[in-house]
Design brief:
Blueprint lengths: L1 E7 L1 H8 L6 E6 L14 E6 L5 E15 H8 L8 H12 L10 E12 L6 E2 L11 E5 L5 H10 L2 H5 L21 H11 L15 E5 L3 H4 L7 E5 H8 L3 E3 L5 E3 L2 H6 L3 H4 L18 H10 L4
Parallel strand pairs: 1-3
Antiparallel strand pairs: 1-7, 2-5, 3-4, 4-5, 4-6, 8-9, 10-11
């Protein structure tokens, strides 16, 4: 198992530390040109402050990386971006890019989505590993089974933070050899991962205007208790509203069904009926496709026929 130590500023860390409890954070990178690929989902991402504060001060479980417009990053994570508001976030992006703030530009930024974040009190900050170079700008990866990564893992384990972060809901905390635990997604990460899984297009209409798209839960989160991707589907916002209210559904065979209630109640619906009987777009990975059980539930409990 690997970990990545990413460099960040103290203001970002302090705002998030003072906002706990948080179930997710967005560790963003201002350039928006290169997607982070150093970790697999379930591995450990750690926060190291800018010099001269050469300490590791917290971290989280890596879930996903993406390049997003700053507006979507803010809508998805809010203050979990480490900023008080979108204006402040824009200002920080412009600062790191060494540009004048452009309030009309929807900057693209690199986003590293982290679940179950933890923040160490100052008396438990961990000095950087012995091979850390002052020339490192973005961060450095470590194998946690060999030195110096193993010593880093032991330090984290001594502080109990990785035991808490790497525990499954139905199991006791993990100690000893580091192992991958797939992270429990927060709402913001669910939204971004579903958006990327469907290639940023509505599963029914294939609309790709990003601000008009929603990551919809098939079965409400309150009933499922988690934000699993196979309980999600990317829909145009009007279709999301109709889906939630039972005016349209998707069968376990991935076919669209549009309720006659739209015509009866609104004397309208031509744009929706043209999709009736069509097959939705399905992600290539089977484990990311909508669960037939969840779709069946929606057909039986929500759809108005």
């Amino acid at each position: 198992m690997r970990a990545f130590v990413g460099v960040t500023d103290y203001d970002w860390f302090r705002l998030l530390r003072d906002s706990v409890p948080l179930d997710e954070v967005n560790f963003w990178q201002p350039s928006g040109k290169t997607q982070f690929k150093a970790l697999k989902p379930g591995e450990l991402f750690l926060f190291k402050l800018h010099s001269p504060k050469n300490y590791i001060v917290g971290g989280g479980i890596f879930a996903h990386s993406s390049i997003l417009p700053i507006s979507l990053a803010w809508e998805s994570f809010g203050k979990a971006n480490g900023a008080q508001d979108l204006i402040q976030m824009r200002s920080r992006v412009a600062k790191y890019r060494k540009e004048k703030v452009d309030r009309l530009s929807d900057y693209f930024i690199g986003c590293i989505l982290l679940e179950q974040p933890f923040f160490l009190p100052e008396n438990q900050w961990i000095p950087v590993p012995s091979d850390w170079s002052p020339n490192i700008v973005q961060g450095k990866g470590y194998d946690l089974t060999t030195e110096p990564g193993l010593s880093l893992w032991n330090c984290l384990e001594d502080r109990f933070c990785v035991a808490n972060a790497f525990s499954d809901e139905n199991e006791n905390p993990k100690y000893g050899k580091p192992s991958i635990i797939l992270p429990r997604l927060g709402q913001g990460s669910f939204r971004v991962i579903v958006t990327d899984t469907y290639e940023r297009r509505c599963a029914i209409s294939r609309e790709r205007t990003l601000p008009a798209l929603d990551a919809a839960h098939i079965k409400p989160y309150a009933e499922v208790g988690n934000h699993s991707v196979n309980n999600g589907i990317l829909l145009r916002r009007d279709m999301h509203a109709l889906f939630d209210k039972g005016y349209l559904t998707i069968t376990p065979q991935s076919k669209v069904e549009v309720s006659s209630k739209i015509r009866e109640e609104f004397e309208n619906g031509k744009d929706y009926y043209k999709h009736n009987g069509s097959t939705i777009y399905l992600p290539q990975k089977i484990e990311l496709r909508p669960s037939p059980d969840y779709l069946r539930w929606h057909n039986e409990e929500v759809y108005r026929g």
